[in-house]
Amino acid sequence: MTTVAACQLAVDDLDVDANLDAVTTRLRGLSEDVDVALFPEHALTGFVADDRIAEVALRRDGAVLRRLGTLADETETALLVGFVERSDGTLYNATAYVPPDGEPSCYRKRHLWSGEREVLEPGERRVVVDTPAGRTGLLTCYDLNFVADSAAFTRERVDALFVPGAWPATYSENWTLLLRARALDGVRWVVGAGRTGRRDLPDADSVEYAGRSLVARPDGGVHAALDRREDDLVAELDPEVVAAQRELVGIFGD
């Protein structure tokens, strides 16, 4: 049995110190039983589609990501955290999976949404990591819309998908539907950690975020869910549930 926590945050755009403090506080407040803590898309940096995002973008080998490694070691909890990454002058929407006493892995979002395309480059490869939930595929927010990616992870027989998001509140039902669909079509657990609150920066569009962090069962049902409040969604993922549903559906036997 694996215990996951989707830590639903209201992110401070362009304030890395405040966001790192928030991640640290929420992580230290979790039960010792939690094996993996997931935080939203852009959780460390926030996001705005102009040159200001370059000023706060993080290197994956920099001090902030090293601090996450220390936190994972100290709490014996794996972390999944989103941020804008800087690499050789190029910016990416990145997600770091940071295990305790292990090397971090990074996924760069492959399908960029709206203003992201103006300042970021898409990633080029899918990423699968070994987590306490088994072989786990990483997606970010809008990636959920692309069934070909889901099918590729199905061919790799991943046991779970971890999905940080910053979904607009206006379309919150789509976020919920897609998380459930990606669980159903690959017969796996799906954990979505959503941003909540509001982006309200000068000279940038204001956005209300959906929250709605959710754990979807391998049959597409809702195992656990939040509304828009800042809270931790803690749930147990039972590998027996995956095995039983795969035996029933039979997609891996054909």
Q: Which range best describes the helical content: under 10%, 10-25%, 25-40%, 40-55%, 55-70% or over 70%?
A: 25-40%
Return the domain count: 1
Assigned CATH superfamily: Carbon-nitrogen hydrolase
What characteristic shape results from the CA principal axes? globular
Query: Quick one: CATH class?
Result: Alpha Beta
- The low-confidence parts are none
If you average the pLDDT, what whole number results?
97
Radius of gyration: 17 Å
- Count of separate DSSP helical elements: 7
Amino- and carboxy-terminal Cα gap: 28 Å
Oligomer designation: single chain
Biggest sheet overview: 7 strands, mixed
Strand content: 25-35%
Structure keywords:
single chain, 254 residues, alpha/beta, Nitrilase/N-carbamoyl-D-aminoacid amidohydrolase, six-stranded mixed sheet, 7 helices, 29% strand
